[in-house]
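Deliverable D5.2: sample structural annotation.
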Amino acid sequence: MSKHAIIAAAAMAAVVAGPAAADFPERPISIIVPYSAGGSTDLSMRLLADSWERNADDTTIVIRNQPGGGGAIGTSAAVLARPDGYTLGAAAQGPLALLPHQGGTDYQLEDVAYVGVMGRSLQLLVACADAPFTDYQSFVDYAATTPVQVGNSGAGGANHISAEAFAAAADIQIESIPYPGSADARTACVGGHIDAMVASPAEALDQAEAGNMTPLFVMEDERIDLFPDTPTAVEMGTDFTWSSWKAIVAPAGTPDDVLDTLRAQFQAAVADPQFVEEMTALGEFVVYEDAETFEARAVRDSDVARSVLEQLGMLGMNN
């Protein structure tokens, strides 16, 4: 190869490799939200974008909504984008860790480079009106011999998976009852049409205070402030935790130095007091997890979901 050809090849390699971290970013970074504008994920990501820009000089964040397919369309667009750091994804548990097992997606968890977690959506199990149990122990004792009807916000969704996974961990019997959404499940619960349901703390608080629901346990390692008298499954002897999450991912293959920059900027944005205050006002639980912790959480949730879906005969059902 001639000297000129070598120089030309080196120049081309530099163009393909893209800018070094010292030059990144040189243009706006897009975050694809796989849901419609105005929802909780969209609002959270817009607050993140504002904080990111406040805390990272000369960085512009653009939010792009790309809904459809239960979050699969936007997630696909993000994780299969050119891996240069300029297209990121608003990552949610459902489309990233659950849907690939059900089929119909053109991506898998292996297509992801992890940036970090910015928040988690906590879950608890509540007894509904007229349920034949009122606390954790009476619930598992009853469900050990009699199937309990547990409502959720959709077959194959996070609430469905968490209820079935807990039932397996606690060795109890449940009959999952899917509804079109959490509001429908809550209405059925308050009306006494089902025995229990998986709910967020915000969904359960008012109804619990009104006496229409009774919190049984929280799906966390430790008790939470909104329900200080409600135990965790862990403290009651069942090693089970579960929560949904809001996070940021990049396409696999994004250069390490670019990822380092993104991760540092993301961490600073999530730690910003104004961001925390604004997220809290939305009812969001702000928690930062680094890329390594996020990856471990996503892989664990994916493994749990695969096991549950296999037991239910739902693996690849959308293929």
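Annotation notes: The domain at 3-121+243-311 is CATH 3.40.190.150 (D-Maltodextrin-Binding Protein; domain 2). The longest strand covers residues 112-122.
The annotation will be released with the project's public dataset once the embargo ends.
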